[in-house]
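Assemble and predict.
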Amino acid sequence: MGGVRSQPGPGWSRRGLSRRDFLRYGGAGLAGATLLGACSSAEREAYTGHIGPAFSGSETVSKNTVVFTFGPDTSGNLVKMIDKFNKTNGKGITVSYREMPADSGQYFDKLRTEFQAGTGTVDVMGGDVIWPTQLAANGWIADLSDLFTDELQAEYLDAPIQANTYKGKIYGVPWFTDAGMLYYRKDLLQKAGKQPPETWDEVISISREIVGNGDAGYGLTFQGAEYEGGVCNGLEYIWNAGGDVLDPQDLSKVVIESDAATSGLELERRLVAEGTAPLSTVVYKEQEAHTAFLGGDYVFCRNWPYMYGLAADPALSSIKPGQVGISPIPVQESADQSFSALGGWNFFISETSTKKEEAWEFVKFMSQDSTQISFAINASLLPTKKKIYEMKDVLKKQPAVELAKEVTQNSRPRPVHPFYSDMSLVMAEGFNENLKGEASPGGTVTELADELERITNIGESVFNVGG
Ligand code: GLC
């Protein structure tokens, strides 16, 4: 990433001002806009590169066109659904899909830049579960409470509804939910006479045995790169060692500086340093991790549910869904419950949209049972409506939904905070430095405690968080 450079001063290094120093001296809230904006297009990546109808964001948009933004359409099901809506809505509404970066942080930054500049043409966003607080606190997305009533909300899983609620109002309609999970090679574990691992020690020993026997090249792969997915992975290591980042009872209180959090990061580092996961893991995002695992040379992979769907596509996978098992993220011996990062995507309507009614028609279409079912079956995206988890024919066609049930029940939100994107930047950098061995686990939690406190203090004064 380019970044801000060229002026001498505190914290300036050869590679310019680090993002952490930028937060320290420049102030939170600006960091993402300035620094992520400097990413080259080459740094953007698609899961599998399916490109939807082209729309760059600067064209004039016709009266009945609703602009919808989302990352790459991995499965092709999104374009299918948009086509269906365009053909059947009967109101002359056309949805135009503007493809955004797969990387949640880069996507968010693009939106933030447009909202801040007042140049955005977006009407509906498919947006990350970590965004509503920040988008709502800034007045960028519409309060949907009158449309998405309590009665409608009651059909949905609690966690995504909570995540879309800000100061008692609902700002997003949950599209699909995500939870980090451990994929394992059923066939390889069976051959070795092993059960799916519940602890990290078991992951290490099973990996050693299977790799030692020559049945796989590597033990584990996960998302270790410096980005949002790396934050999710780092948090899972912290949670599954019994630690946390903010005090859930008081969001202005940073609690990351603990033995448990340190031991979580120590383990994450050890997995790479001792070779259970290859060194390349430190730059892996979802795409690299799924390509590696589906290539057939790994025993384990931490990823989101979408990867299960890809295993059914012989063009993307040299292993078959039948060879793949799913279980909760392992824990350290000292912890007794497994937690996964709560992920997922939602529909938000831009506060400045002049087509809110048309936008809502599209959101309604995308939220129908049949649309959720189609994403579940064709893309293994987990439904957000409770009743779909009880539909036997859906579970039969897409076993990942059933398999993921247990995992989703134990998913934990990332820190809910109006300055979450700034917190995420410093965690992404800290976790990645630890993983690369550039900082010690203890040093990382001490430094992160300091930086996160700075950000939450600013949040406290601007938005009265936790007060
Ligand atoms: C998945 C999750 C999302 C998370 C992202 C990180 O898309 O659904 O919540 O932020 O991965 O890469």
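The longest strand covers residues 340-349.
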